[in-house]
Amino acid sequence: MVKKEYFKGLDSLRFFAALAVFFTHVELIKKFTGFGSHWIDPEERITKFTVFQSVMAKEIDALSPLIAYSSALGVVFFFVLSGFLITFLLLREKEQNNSIDIRKFYLRRALRIWPLYYLIFILGFFALPYLDFFAVPGQDKFFQQNFWGNLMLYAFFMPNLAFSIFTTAVPNIGQSWSIGVEEQFYLLWPLLIRKSRNVLKSILWITGTIIALKGLLLLSFPFVKFEYLIVLKKFLAMSKLECMALGGLGAYMLFSKKEELLSFVYKPLSQIIALISIPLLIYFIPTPFEDILHLLFSMSFLVIILNVAGNEKSFLRFENRTLQYLGRISYGFYMFHVMCIVFTIHALDKYMGLDNDITTPQHILLYGISFLLTVALSSLSYHIFEKAFIRLKDKYAQPKPTTEIAQEDV
Questions:
Q1: Residue 161: in which H helix or E strand, if any?
Q2: 240 pLDDT higher than 70
């Protein structure tokens, strides 16, 4: 009989990641719609050697770097968590059955991800562009110019490639680029785990190869100006498969009970360093090393995930029912939040009249209404739409789901 596992706090962490993305996109949509914003374009984020020096020189305000990085932090966390959960379940299936049913794996992934993805896809391409309350002035024009190219790439789960080619997101659904990255990861990862005789070596090899290829491209980029290489650079920069592979490495450590490594990760000092390193990296990492930030964040996130998932003595406890519920609906939260923000800004501007520099009470209304609207829509989507596919997905679960393991959102 397979040992039952229950990772109690991971749903809560998933919600915090979605919330981080939400904060960035409120400020980004404010900028697109012509209101004062804390968002700073990544190209303009740093003029000094570090972000902290730019803040001290009063070139940017102290809050802007956190706003600018929050979305990236949330998405990187999603990638690490996905790699962790999927690898753990694949290893458990391989141990139980001495193999992995690739067809059922793909079917489970499709039933969990595709229905909501294609609902958002239909809304984003065929409904929202024709409604004034969902207009995004900084993106609408480029969307119309590149409609057919975006349509084809989004339809075949390549939104990250569309973003790389056309440089501007599809209004209201641009956040779905990360779903494309995850689908591309799911296409290859179970094959790697099933075929591998030494899973640890395979994970280390694939992680190192991806990092080396990206590093080579980054080093050669200043000397090569071909347009297709610019697209390739953007595509590889967005396709952070190495973050998911690192999550897989953590799953292997926990599944295989690598006690020496885990005992180090479980130390209180390791947990504290993982937490405080995140703001320190944002403000103090030198500009030339900014391209490796996602790897450093991934390592911190992996320490947090391993402690929440496997360390009973960890002070990182997130076993709150409200947070766990919000984590369960976080896929919908992530997919619906941008359109809810856009709608709220237009509604407040129409019926209240927003100032160019939005006041504090207006900010409270904007954030509060956007958040509550996103939660409400995500809840309806989860219970009325997504759950039907989740129940169908569980018929193909391997190993069979139990009440002790929350895998409906994996």
A1: helix 159-166
A2: yes
